Amino acid sequence: MEDQERQEADSGSTESDHALRPAASPNPWLIGTDLRQARKRIHWGFGAGLAAAIINFIVIMSTFFVGDTEVEGVVQPSRGEFIFVLVEAGLVTVLAVGVLKRNRAMAAALLGYQLISKSVLFGLALAGLGPGNLNPVSLVLNLAFAYLFFQGLRGTLTWHYLTHPDYPARATESQFHEEHEETPREDTHP
To answer: Which of 43, 71, 75, 158 is the most exposed place for a label (fewest CB within 10 A)?
Structure first.
């Protein structure tokens, strides 16, 4: 107890100062200390999830309903592949909404699903055993989505770390709420 009081006296800070500033996070590369940045990262993860679902949906719809076109590189998917991609787009959308709702498990599941499913598809394409696109644009796009999903995970972890009551280092109450412009009130004074 005396050591703690001595440390506070040496640093010139009081216990109330520590309550106003969040402490350093246990994993600074994963968990940040800024709620505004956490909100941005959550929105990036949500937007990327929504974009990935829309892109998958549009691609599968356009190739399924094209018919037999004899265009090189355009292969009509089977009914099973069509249903799989529709379910995948729905799953990614649900997980993206979970990121927006600041659910850590859904953010981790979104990142994990992206990494595992795309790795398997690229591995099958490399082996020539199944569907997959080895197009460099597709590779870069999937890596970009994985990065944005990771940022969404970081945002949810940071949000939870800074706002959860079990943690000793909480941000100030004013950071929990979005900034709103106050509407001017009319004075009723004569």
So the answer is: 71
* Distant-in-sequence contacts of 76-79, Cβ < 8 A, 24+ apart: 77/131
CA separation (Å) from 144 to 4, 26, 52, 122, 137? 46, 26, 10, 15, 10
Q: What is the pLDDT of residues 95-125, one digit of tens each?
A: 999 999 999 999 999 999 999 988 888 888 8
Instruction: Determine the structural domain holding residue 109 and report its residue range.
Output: 34-167
Q: State the total domains in the chain.
A: 1
pLDDT < 70 regions, the chain: 1-29, 64-77, 130-133, 165-190
Strands (E), 48-121: none
CA distances from residue 165 to 48, 49, 162, 177 in whole angstroms, order as listed:
30, 29, 8, 16
Query: Does any domain span residue 24?
Result: no
- pLDDT at 9 (0 to 100): 46
User: pTM for the complete prediction?
Assistant: 0.67
DSSP 161-187: HHH-TTSS----GGGTS---PPPPPPP
| End-to-end Cα spacing for the chain | 59
